[in-house]
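From the shared-data thread, chain only:
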Amino acid sequence: MRDKSSVGGSKMHVARVDDPIWLGEEAKRMSRKLLRKEHRGPGDTIEAAAHRLESRHRVPASVIMQCRNRPPREMKVSRWMAVFTAYWAEFGTRAEAAYEEKRETTDAHPALVRLADLVAGRTAEAPTTAPRGKP
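Structure, as tokens:
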């Protein structure tokens, strides 16, 4: 018979979306990306970049710095929403523009385009061809 003790380390790990640790890691990733975009290079400090984010997106600089410095376990979940909102305000419009550009230039089947629109949360456009059987 086979020894089953070696199976313990090879199990697949699935992260739950409502897990606060996963959300904390996402908040850390988003705050790092926001700070990386806002940082102006040598001579600029991370704290100054956090304060510029605070004035532009109304996310407290202390929350940005906590997301950068603390492990996800030690942060309050209620404070992350400001980071999520700022991230979406900063990078969401660029994603929407990229989706529109790709959608306009695709030659995929219309059913796939409608499915992509459904996933993206858009309303389906009216069909461009006339129904069959009618002149």
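The two ends are 74 Å apart (CA to CA).
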